Amino acid sequence: MEVVYDTINGTEPHEFCGFVARLLELPGGGVSMAKHKYETFEWIKIAGQPQDDGGRRRKVRSGSKVNIKNAPIFLRDGDTVGIKDLASECGDQDDFSTPSDDRGRAILVAMQEEKKKKRRNKGADIFCSSVPRRPEIGIKIFVPDYTSLRQTRQS
Q1: Backbone phi, then psi, for 103, in 5-degree steps?
Q2: With a threshold of 0.90, does the pTM exceed it?
């Protein structure tokens, strides 16, 4: 299902979750959402409710609100958002992984392991290489003798 969300309605995660809940006719607080990251096959949870600070009052700086268009969510046009109805879902409410995500992560791990092996082998080849290295050349540094200049100035 494709949905267009206008950020004029609000850019905070709980406003976005409320919009989706109204659209799908779900109870207001019963929605869990996450954004899919295609590159890493991970899901970033979008907090549906404003964060409770445990009754402690803090000074809130302007601009410190969580924004769905900024870090860590970075919600952009064309992003895939997973939605779970907490009332009907049993199990882990924060796990949005699919079997294709698991396969993709396994491929990424295999590629990383292959890179590590290549680096290790490349590092070992440097020391055991049969290619002859260039011979070392000595450096000649000329330092003029300024003591003779001092003696002539002093006299």
Answers
A1: -65, -40
A2: no
